[in-house]
Design brief:
By secondary structure, this protein is α+β, with helices and mostly antiparallel strands. It has two domains: 2-47, no CATH class; 78-110. Helices cover 21% and strands 23% of the residues. The protein has helices spanning 78-87, 98-110, and strands spanning 2-6, 12-16, 21-24, 29-32, 37-39, 44-47. It has a three-stranded antiparallel β-sheet with strand order 4-1-6, with no helix packed on it. The protein has a three-stranded antiparallel β-sheet with strand order 3-2-5, with no helix packed on it. A hairpin with a 4-residue loop joins strand 2 (12-16) and strand 3. Helix 1 packs parallel to helix 2 (98-110). It starts with a strand and ends with a helix.
Length: 111
């Protein structure tokens, strides 16, 4: 079993191999067998029972060290935009242009 925490500001779904989806509230931690996970959003981070005791956001550092503001989308190349999209749990279709990716990320941030 592994422990994961939703470090996003919203509800996230973890797709399990049995076809079910496990919904995890913002800030909630859950224990899931790693082998049971089919897909998980990038803002679900694995937490360690031996982690820093003052690690409030599950990133392995003391304090709330995740940035408050999301990363800027201007001046990024396609690979960087795809990385941001994955980290924010935004699905991007194959063949999407930079403008399509930016629009999808911005839409995801509004929700």
């Amino acid at each position: 079993m592994a422990a994961f925490k939703n470090v996003s500001k919203g509800l996230r779904g973890v797709l399990l191999r049995n076809g079910e989806r496990l919904w995890v509230e913002a800030g909630q931690a859950v224990s899931i067998a790693s082998a049971a996970i089919l897909a998980m959003p990038g803002d679900m981070v694995e937490i360690d029972a031996k982690a820093e005791p003052l690690d409030h956001d599950g990133d392995g550092k003391a304090g709330g060290s995740l940035p408050h503001d999301p990363p800027a989308l201007t001046g990024k190349n396609k690979a960087q935009l795809l990385e941001i999209a994955a980290a924010e749990g935004v699905e991007i279709e194959d063949g999407a242009t930079n403008a399509d990716i930016v629009a999808a990320i911005e839409l995801g941030r509004e929700g």
